[in-house]
């Protein structure tokens, strides 16, 4: 795993007393679990924009596609001030080497989805995006984002954290070792992530493979941009049980000369049981990882599919 993985986070989720009432929204999963693996870069748009603590509560109003940020009691319009800050802060964060961002859910500044936007009659529609979150995603569209509420969903959490670790490995690959050329590094990265990419989209995985094969014909900057865009687009697609099962059966093929008939039957049954949703993904993956070590299959030992993130996070333990 990369030595340091930097992730942006809404400061209130770390327990910092920056909310409008002087409180916080400390999230223990963020600090106590993810904090073991990530270096957090905290951001509180309201405080950093100079609104102070405590401050008047605010909300989004008007057009959900271009809402205004207005205080509740006095009706003060803070839109231009927040947008100017958000643009500057997003530009600064572009230099922080962030591999992800965890936003505060439903915040008029930091919520990245389903934020309430009120019409002129005071009725809300959950169709908005916080002004800072919008600026961040516009400036850094390939950086994975989530909010602490959606991290309670097993599959959303796994996908988000998998994307963070993969992006961190990609950044590490780009940094290089001073001896291996870009084309060779890119081909190596593609090879070691092949099965992981297949679990998200066989079609896009093949496109990435073709891009890697033609890497020497591309200018470096264009190659990196195109590859990273395709990589993150692929990983954003859900890795379904059916796609996982196909990858697991593909891995099983590497042991066709090593396993006994009973072992093959057992492994096939475990994969089918997973496909039906009766056991979590960690069950067939653990068995295949065992055979990989036992029979020392070099290709599989180099595949990040078997360990895309730390096992201690238990991201593949849900059925």
From TrEMBL:
Residues 194-310 form the DUF1722 domain. It comes from the Bacteria. This is DUF1722 domain-containing protein. It comes from Solidesulfovibrio carbinoliphilus subsp. oakridgensis.
């Amino acid at each position: 795993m990369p030595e340091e993985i930097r992730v942006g986070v809404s400061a209130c989720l770390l327990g910092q007393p920056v909310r409008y009432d002087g409180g916080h929204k400390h999230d223990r999963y963020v600090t106590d679990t993810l904090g073991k693996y990530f270096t957090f870069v905290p951001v509180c748009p309201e405080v950093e924009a100079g609104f102070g603590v405590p401050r008047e509560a605010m909300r989004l109003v008007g057009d959900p596609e271009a809402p205004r940020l207005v205080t509740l009691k006095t009706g003060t319009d803070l839109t231009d001030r927040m947008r100017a800050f958000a643009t500057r802060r997003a530009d600064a964060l572009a230099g922080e080497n962030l591999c992800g961002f965890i936003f505060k859910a439903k915040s008029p500044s930091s919520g990245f989805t389903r934020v309430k936007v009120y019409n002129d009659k005071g009725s809300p529609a959950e169709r908005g995006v916080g002004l800072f979150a919008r600026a961040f995603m516009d400036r850094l569209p390939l950086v994975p984002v989530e909010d602490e509420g959606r991290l309670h969903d097993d599959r959303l959490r796994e996908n988000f954290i998998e994307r963070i670790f993969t992006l961190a490995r990609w950044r590490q690959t780009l940094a290089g070792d001073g001896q291996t050329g870009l084309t060779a590094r890119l081909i190596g990265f593609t090879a070691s992530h092949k099965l992981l990419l297949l679990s998200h989209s066989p079609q896009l995985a093949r496109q990435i493979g073709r891009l890697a094969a033609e890497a020497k014909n591309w200018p470096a900057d264009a190659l990196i941009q195109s590859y990273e865009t395709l990589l993150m687009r692929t990983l954003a697609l859900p890795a379904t049980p059916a796609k996982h099962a196909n990858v697991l059966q593909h891995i099983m093929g590497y042991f066709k000369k090593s396993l006994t008939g009973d072992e093959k039957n057992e492994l096939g049954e475990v994969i089918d049981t997973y496909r039906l949703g009766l056991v979590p993904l960690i069950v067939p993956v653990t068995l295949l990882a065992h055979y990989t070590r036992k029979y020392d299959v070099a290709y599989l030992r180099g595949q990040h599919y078997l360990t895309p993130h730390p096992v201690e996070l238990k991201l593949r333990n849900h059925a």
